Amino acid sequence: MSEQFNIETKCIQSGWKPKKGEPRILPIYQSTTFKYDTSEQMGRLFDLEDSGYFYTRLQNPTNDAVAEKICELEGGYAAMLTSSGQAANFYAVMNIAEEGDHIVCSSALYGGTYNLYAHTIRKMGVEATFVDPDCSEEELNAAFRENTKAVVGETIANPALTVLDIEKFAKAAHAHGVPLIVDNTFATPINCRPFEWGADIVTHSTTKYMDGHAMTVGGAIVDSGNFDWSAHADKFPGLTQPDETYHGIVYTEKFGKGAYITKATAQLMRDLGSIQSPQNAFLLNIGLETLHLRMPRHCENAKKVASYLKGHDKVAWVNCAMLEGDKYHDLAAKYMPNGTCGVITFGLKGGRDASVKMMDNLKLAAIVTHVADARTCVLHPASHTHRQMNDQELLEAGVQPDLIRFSVGIENADDIIADLEQALALV
Ligand SMILES: *Cc1c(COP(=O)(O)O)cnc(C)c1O
């Protein structure tokens, strides 16, 4: 029903739909388990013959209501919450890739996600090839192998702020019979809905704008339901062949468009257990209720701050795709006509040392390992989130050594600019 609503209404109304006499506000189902009347009823749940709750590691009503809201915001078919964005990106790939498989990734990724795909899943036998997000179609197509199972990128990369040409990546993925997975954390569905451009699966670190208040670490995976796993059955045996751990169920046959999320829940969540706590899902839901109000303000403030920095004589460069002349302005105008996000990056003419010194002088903007929430915050990726990378890896990830990541909050933009003004005066 709510699919017909505008996105602002979905932020408020989607997800929890109380019936007669039930709480108006989403309850926190603070229960590990759920009661049944007969052993037979419980048995059918374990066989995936009935749907219902039995253990919170697999599913919980609070989490499901919030996942449904995120699903509707993205225009997807099914969704699940995870304990973190990292867990979402891990599950999204490992749900369809196994030992001996390969994925193609944009090289402009969040530092943690880069480590996950470059190193950690490599130890599990899944290899990644990284491509420049701005590469030609030929270069992109050349990265695929016989055993490639997915293509991965970020709508707006953290912290490189490259804008993914979603249509280009979707076209290449589909030409090779694999889905495109897009991490839509920075844009949020308020500013971009990757499914409308051909992406098949969307992931989120809900820790960022969705929560919006730096309260809870969380993640989400949304499936569009559009990718036809059966048409490429040989590539995706986990979805198209019997699962012996569920008495031979074939996910695509039994769950159709719900196959991918059902498998991720029934296998990965069952075995790896990276659930979001219902308490955190409740808080995330409160954040989602104002996402449509906060995102435009983040963008408006970011544009003002970026314009100010651009005109400052101590500033060497500024990245903000909402500014005319930015390398990604045209792609941003296509995929995110209402604005990108509140995160901007810049470097100082004094180089790395000056950048770090300026940060230490800030009073309103706090130095925190966080980004994309209501409070303005700042970070130096080369010293912090991307510390494990060597210079070559840093440059490939689009992170210059002097890059300051500045996450513009929803305070009054004049106060944020005044803080920068006094900090810059001291370097
Ligand atoms: C923060 C972030 C992640 C990781 O999310 P966590 O919730 O911190 O695990 C993944 N992708 C992007 C784009 C991020 O910004």
UniProtKB/TrEMBL annotation:
Which cofactors? pyridoxal 5'-phosphate
- Cellular component, GO, one term: cytoplasm
The answer to whether the entry has keyword Transmembrane is no
Q: Its Gene Ontology molecular function terms? A: cysteine synthase activity; O-acetylhomoserine aminocarboxypropyltransferase activity; pyridoxal phosphate binding
Q: Does the keyword tRNA-binding apply?
A: no
Q: CDD domains annotated for this entry?
A: CGS_like
Output one GO BP term: cysteine biosynthetic process from serine
State the coiled-coil residue ranges: none
Q: Which Pfam families match?
A: Cys_Met_Meta_PP
Residues with PTM N6-(pyridoxal phosphate)lysine: K208
Query: Which keywords does the record carry?
Result: Pyridoxal phosphate, Transferase
Q: What SUPFAM superfamilies does the annotation carry? A: PLP-dependent transferases
- Source species, domain of life: Bacteria
Protein family per UniProt = Belongs to the trans-sulfuration enzymes family.
Q: What is this protein called?
A: O-acetylhomoserine (Thiol)-lyase
**What's the source species' lineage?**
Bacteria, Bacillati, Bacillota, Clostridia, Lachnospirales
